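Thread: Modeling a multi-component assembly for a lab meeting

Hi all, long-time lurker, first post. My supervisor asked me to bring a structural picture of a complex we are working on to next week's group meeting, and I have zero experience with this. I have the sequence lines for every component (484 residues in total). Could someone generate the structure of the whole assembly? Inputs are pasted exactly as I received them:
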Amino acid sequence: MIKKKIYTRKLDFDENISGRWHNSDVLLLGGSAGSFNLIFQVVKNLPPDLNKTVIIVIHRKKNFQSDIERMFSENSRMPLKEISDKDKINKNTIYVAPANYHTLIEKGGYFGLDVSDAVWFSKPSIDITFESAAEAFGERCTAILFSGANKDGAQGMLKLKNAGSLTIVQDPSEAEMPEMPDAAININAVDYVLGTNEIFELLKTSLL
Amino acid sequence: MNALPESLTTEQIAELIDLVKRVHGFDFSDYTKASLKRRITRIMMIKKIGFYDLKHLLVNNPSFFQEFLEEITVNVTEMFRDPGFYKALSRLVLPYLSTYQQIKIWSAGCSSGEEPYSLAILLNEARLKERAFIYGTDINTVVLKEARKGIYSFRNIKNYAENYTLSGLRGSLTDHFTTMYDAAAIHNELKTNTLFTVHNLISDTAFNEFQLICCRNVFIYFETPLQEKILNLFYNSLCPHGFLCLGSKETIRSDLFKMKFKVIDQKENIYQKIGF
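Re: Modeling a multi-component assembly
Sure thing. I ran the full set together rather than chain by chain. Output:
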């Protein structure tokens, strides 16, 4: 069952969610329209010794060299890299999925890229990365899906949840575009629905 | 849309790879697994078949294998994909190529011809087309037929128009096509001196000597040892100081071949062969 907004006081996380976040090796962040600033804030606040791999998939338009990598890396305390084919997956590194490719995770611990058709009109597709993360990492992920105007990410979240990973969506009532978190909630792919501040609070608990 | 009916195990994928190799002589064992698995799962989903049906069809139905091959090999491509690449090619490589009497170009993994025709347009605009010969190769005979025709849907051509403009070329992409209803046929003069033929990068050898080889977004489907094997094929197929262009996110990782190629453009992954 979905526990919607169960946390009323800021640091009142139960053992379960903070323990699962603490134990995960990979943080997956997915978002589309309305998610950029939030993911930016998350990246900005992550400590350099997080001891996890961070993988970001944001829908972006091809051909327009967006400043995502530059803005993120200037403001993050961890090294940040736009993914190239066969890049090894390291801890304490933030990886960003490139535009006009799908990013897959290979079981050997490296990234693979793919130029096949867009999924939900999106390339990169959040579903494709999250599904392959479920295959490669099993229960070792924490995935957070933010605002977006289509249904990408929901199936990937479902596979992650079924594999035992922790799945969280931004509370749709707080999301600029609620369709994406809603889609994940509707197919029961979500462990926790959290407000934006609660997401930040949870991620901070890694410092404890 | 993306729901997977039956998840294939690693062992099942290995079994299918082995079967295809024995029955059809195509070796997918060094393809990247996550992508390959996704492609195979997609076929099973489209055909609404399970693992055993798939095996049966692969052994007993030759026309199914052709379909399988088409689905497994990703044929998605664009004209002037990555405009920054075509700009770099114009700026850094074409001046060098213009010193040759004859410019031989190989577009490896050319799919339905979008890349070789983009190169043809680029060379034509640089007034080098008459001296150039472009070979387009692929393992998939169906896409090669499309490439030979050079006819695309008008809607697609319009989608590539932005790429063209960003590549810094004059006019618009549609200037190079004759359109009729919803089809756009590339001008005949751009089709002259092109040849589309089957070539399997994994099993076939060098067939000519080239000044320029473009193999973009093909290596992403191959494991690193196979990439190295094909780099060797390209090295042997290039003239001294010939150019090799990989996809924007594909780099030469092998130490051996880092020594054999000089980086011309780091961002666009354009390399030049060193030595003979």
